[in-house]
């Protein structure tokens, strides 16, 4: 047991480092350590790998909050509110809120995994390509929520993101789309998410700071960190519904194979905004948004294990790598896994519980030191971030220089977009979700003899349409209301 | 005296240089092994990882398997220094990608050095839902022939081993049952095994292509009816496995029973010296005799059937050319949707 706990500690700590370095992910951490697990028995190997998984998912919040660069795609929404908090001197508070929300998300999803795995797995397979397409579409409605005041520009930016995600080989016929002949080899798999993500956030930010002239540090001018609000559990007062809703949304997205963690945090964030008493504060440094994002992306961890252990289908890219650990030990994961491997199943639950608490301990207490990053002079910090970004982009596909060029190009593109007033967040969301949107649409129409009828006749699909239309209607109404109030304010 | 010393020194240097040049490349070196898949749970990774663990021992090197995907792996073989320190272990998709036109001729076998074969996976197979009205691919053709309104949708990937299995079956049905029956075999674009399983459970396909070991649990007794599947055609025989095999069912390719295993070979950059290949050959010979390696491969339902590079060359070129002849008359997958 001691060995298992020690391995979990190592896993969580290394996972956090992977998650915190922009460009490196939990999936990479698990893949790198996978061959080493051959020397271990399956149970200690799982403690190590689950530690890497939980740590990797959690570590992404650190750079998202402190330097506005999401460490992993699923922490994109964390920066929306976390970074403004850090800029006003509340970095430590934001990190502690994020870590606590992560722990809650992890524990809620673990409870779901332990208690409801078989019925939820049966439910998951009722979600066909039709429903998955509509869920992705629903996740895209967050673009509307994020584009308040400039909805046309937000939607345009989102469409551009979708368009860019479709560059590359169409697997249906292995033909290239929108790829110049001289880039055929580099762009066969399309643009990679991580270089684009880091370019749009980190590199663009550096260009902007360089233009303005480097300030002493990343905090807003005139902020005195000593007067900043401190973390207390009261930050969660009135947030329990948000925590539970977001954690369950994350868990649910994890249960649905192929939907992904980014969609989970996007939907949780947009729902937090919809149900908030002060939606106008989300995006300006409200703990509510931070809690939604972090509890949902950690909610994914337990959720993604549900289909893996009860159907043999991984819920996300990291659990797809975990299958390798079972296979290396000669164990098949499939519908009979829990039935035939009761002891391993129990160990997975215990390990996941332990890893969540270890993550909390490893991250919560040293956070005071980590949060000091915002006090480091920008002129010293940015070169380090730049090097980390380049290493991260280069590592995306195990050493492809093209990805480093993409990082820089997307940094320039992001800078140009900011200059012409096109928001980058909808562009990124369009890019993240675009490929899956197309994939499930094509799969749905091809599987139904090119008929669109199932999109409007299947019961779950109808519910999803209602949600999409209601949410879009609300966003348009809210946008118009905001504009009216702005006009009225100007008149006054 | 000075002259003698100079000559002696020159001779010693020459001997030193020659000895260095002739010394083994691998002991103490760091080696990168790329594979043509990004998955770490598929057969490409499992074979490469198992082989890697034993090759390290026999070559005396430190090596690492990088699951970079087909395109990046082909690029690595094209651009790496021909010093043997970076090579690819991959299966038949190496040449099938070019045959199907998915990859350019620059990635053809002729532009690589074919090294030894390190293993085989005989487990490629087709599977259907357990309650399907046919039990094997011969019965499936009979079932189609019995009623002109019936169709069978088969989920495969374009440009890979599954494409071969699909096309061979289509052409055999066309020859044995006629074009009308064959044209009711429809292509559905698949993806990873889990994507294909979901297509099957969703009712978006009737038959899927996958690896035997990845589907084994779904064929067991006690599996929920909605999830249960059955094997309808293995592409080759697997020792100790009782399931229909395409070749045994009478399915033929070019008049011969069709059996197809995935062959995993080492592919090196063009211009790699023969000495390097010889070193790999020597290590692979030791692999063949290593009972632990054979047991590890068998545990994964793979075979540790190795071939030295000369035989592997002849074998893989022969296999490619035979398939090329058949594929010359084969329809494109998108025409069979």
Walk me through the structure.
The complex is a heterodimer of chains A (about 500) and B (about 325). With about 500 residues, chain A is mainly α. Chain A has one domain. Helix content of chain A is about 70%, strand content about 0%. A two-stranded antiparallel sheet of chain A has the order 1-2. In chain A, helix 5 (about 75-85) packs antiparallel against helix 6 (about 90-125), helix 5 runs antiparallel to helix 13 (about 285-310) and helix 18 (about 380-395) crosses helix 19 (about 400-420). The longest helix of chain A is centred in the N-terminal third of the chain and has 34 residues, at about 90-125. Chain A is globular. The termini of chain A are far apart. Chain B starts with a helix and ends in a 10-residue tail after the last helix. The longest helix of chain B has 21 residues, at about 1-20. Chain B folds into two domains: about 5-120 and about 260-325, D-Maltodextrin-Binding Protein, domain 2; about 125-260, 3-Layer(aba) Sandwich (D-Maltodextrin-Binding Protein, domain 2). With about 325 residues, chain B is an alpha/beta fold. In chain B, the strands form three sheets. Chain B has a five-stranded mixed sheet, with helices on both faces. A five-stranded mixed sheet of chain B has the order 7-6-8-5-9, with helices on both faces. Chain B is built from twelve helices and twelve strands.
Low-confidence stretches of chain B: 17-22
Biggest interface between protein chains, with counts per chain? A-B, 44 and 56 residues
> Which class do the helix and strand fractions of chain B yield?
alpha/beta
Largest sheet of chain B: 5 strands, mixed
Instruction: Give the tally of structural domains of chain B.
Output: 2
Using brief descriptors, characterize the structure shown:
heterodimer; A: 492 residues; mainly alpha; two-stranded antiparallel sheet; 22 helices; 2 strands; B: 337 residues; alpha/beta; D-Maltodextrin-Binding Protein, domain 2; 5-stranded mixed sheet; 12 strands; 43% helix
């Amino acid at each position: 047991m001691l060995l298992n706990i020690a391995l979990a500690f190592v896993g969580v700590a290394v996972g956090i480092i992977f998650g915190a370095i922009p460009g490196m992910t939990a999936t990479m951490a698990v893949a790198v350590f996978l061959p080493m697990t051959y020397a271990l028995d399956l149970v200690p190997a799982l403690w190590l790998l689950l530690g890497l998984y939980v740590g990797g998912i959690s570590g992404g919040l650190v750079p998202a909050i402190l330097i506005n660069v999401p460490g992993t795609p699923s922490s994109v929404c964390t920066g929306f509110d976390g970074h403004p908090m850090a800029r006003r001197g509340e970095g430590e508070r934001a990190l502690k809120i994020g870590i606590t929300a992560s722990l809650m998300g992890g524990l809620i999803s673990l409870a779901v995994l332990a208690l409801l795995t078989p019925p939820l797995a049966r439910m998951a397979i009722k979600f066909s390509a039709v429903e998955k397409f509509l869920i992705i579409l629903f996740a895209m409605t967050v673009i509307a929520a994020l584009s308040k005041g400039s909805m046309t520009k937000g939607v345009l930016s989102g469409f551009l993101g979708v368009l860019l995600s479709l560059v590359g080989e169409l697997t249906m016929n292995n033909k290239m789309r929108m790829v110049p002949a001289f880039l055929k080899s580099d762009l066969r798999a399309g643009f990679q998410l991580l270089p684009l993500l880091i370019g749009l956030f980190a590199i663009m930010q550096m260009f902007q700071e360089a233009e303005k002239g480097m300030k002493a540090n990343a905090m807003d001018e005139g902020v005195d960190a000593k007067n900043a609000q401190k973390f207390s559990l009261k930050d969660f007062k009135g947030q329990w519904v948000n925590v539970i809703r977001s954690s369950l949304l994350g868990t649910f997205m994890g249960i649905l194979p192929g939907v992904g963690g980014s969609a989970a945090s996007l939907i949780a964030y947009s729902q937090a905004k919809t149900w908030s008493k002060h939606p106008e504060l989300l995006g300006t440094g409200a703990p509510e948004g931070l809690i939604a994002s972090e509890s949902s992306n950690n909610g994914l961890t337990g959720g993604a294990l549900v289909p893996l252990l009860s159907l043999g289908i991984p819920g996300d890219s990291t659990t797809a790598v975990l299958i390798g650990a079972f296979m290396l030990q000669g164990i098949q994961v499939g519908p009979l896994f829990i039935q035939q491997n009761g002891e391993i199943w129990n160990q997975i639950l215990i390990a996941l519980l332990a890893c969540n608490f270890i993550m909390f301990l490893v991250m919560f207490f040293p956070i005071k030191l980590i949060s000091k990053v915002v006090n480091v002079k920008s002129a010293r910090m940015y070169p380090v971030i730049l090097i980390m970004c380049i290493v991260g982009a280069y590592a995306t596909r195990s050493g492809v220089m093209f990805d480093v060029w993409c990082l820089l190009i997307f940094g320039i593109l992001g800078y140009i977009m900011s200059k012409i007033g096109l928001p980058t967040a909808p562009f990124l969301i369009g890019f993240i979700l675009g490929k899956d949107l197309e994939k499930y649409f094509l799969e749905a129409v091809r599987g139904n003899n090119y008929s669109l009828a199932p999109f409007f006749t299947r019961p779950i699909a109808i519910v999803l349409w209602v949600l999409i239309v209601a949410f879009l209607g609300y966003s348009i109404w809210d946008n118009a209301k905001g504009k009216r109030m702005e006009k009225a304010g100007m008149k006054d | 005296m000075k002259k003698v010393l100079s000559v002696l020194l020159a001779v010693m240097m020459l001997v030193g240089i020659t000895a260095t040049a002739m010394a083994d490349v691998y002991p103490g070196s760091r080696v990168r092994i790329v594979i043509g898949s990004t998955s770490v749970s598929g057969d490409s990774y499992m074979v490469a990882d198992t082989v890697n663990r034993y090759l390290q021992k026999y070559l005396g090197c430190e090596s690492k398997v990088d699951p970079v995907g087909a395109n990046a792996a082909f690029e690595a073989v094209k651009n790496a220094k021909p010093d043997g320190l970076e090579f690819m272990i991959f299966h038949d998709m190496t040449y099938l990608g070019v045959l199907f036109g998915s990859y350019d001729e620059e990635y053809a076998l002729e532009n690589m050095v074919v090294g030894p074969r390190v293993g085989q996976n005989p487990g490629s197979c087709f599977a259907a839902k357990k309650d399907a009205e046919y039990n094997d691919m011969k019965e499936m053709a009979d079932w189609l022939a019995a009623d002109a309104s019936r169709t069978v949708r088969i989920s495969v990937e374009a440009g890979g081993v599954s494409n071969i299995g699909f096309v061979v079956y289509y052409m055999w049905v066309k020859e044995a049952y006629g074009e009308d029956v064959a044209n009711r075999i429809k292509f559905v674009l698949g993806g990873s095994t889990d994507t294909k399983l979901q297509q099957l459970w969703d009712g978006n396909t009737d038959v899927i292509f996958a690896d035997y070991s990845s589907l084994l649990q779904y064929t067991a007794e006690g599996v929920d009816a909605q999830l249960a599947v059955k094997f309808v055609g293995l592409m080759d025989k697997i020792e100790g496995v009782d399931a229909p095999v395409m070749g045994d069912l009478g399915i033929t390719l070019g008049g011969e029973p069709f059996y197809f295993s995935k062959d995993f070979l080492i592919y090196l950059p063009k211009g790699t010296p023969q000495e390097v290949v010889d070193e790999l050959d020597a290590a692979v010979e030791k692999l063949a005799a290593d009972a632990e390696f054979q047991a590890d491969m068998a545990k994964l339902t793979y075979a540790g059937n190795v071939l030295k590079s000369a035989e592997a060359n002849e074998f893989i070129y022969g296999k490619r050319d035979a398939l090329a002849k058949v594929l010359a008359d084969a329809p494109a997958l998108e025409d069979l949707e």
